[in-house]
Write a structure and sequence with these properties.
about 80 residues; alpha+beta; 6-stranded antiparallel β-sheet; 2 helices; 6 strands
Length: about 80
């Protein structure tokens, strides 16, 4: 099932299927390694759920929810989404 990155749960793994951002924001997202086919895992969220911390390609990065909304991921388990 394909869901926005913002909807992924902590410790949930997924694979990026598309990045919908264009222009400078799209380039910035892709420069961080968030490209189609990249596998990632959500490792944490700030207390107000923004930003989200991700682990991919051996490093950890944080992303604002407004940026995560542009990234769609394929995940296996979608039960208990919050």
């Amino acid at each position: 099932m394909e869901i926005p990155l913002r909807k992924m749960k902590i410790n949930q793994r997924g694979r990026i299927t598309s990045v919908g951002a264009q222009g400078e924001l799209g380039r910035r997202i892709r420069d961080m390694g968030l490209t189609s086919g990249a596998e990632l895992m959500v490792v944490g969220r700030a207390p107000l759920k923004d930003p989200v911390a991700l682990r991919l390609k051996g490093y950890t990065l944080t992303l604002r929810n407004s940026e995560a909304d542009f990234i769609l991921c394929e995940v296996d388990d979608v039960e208990g989404l919050s």
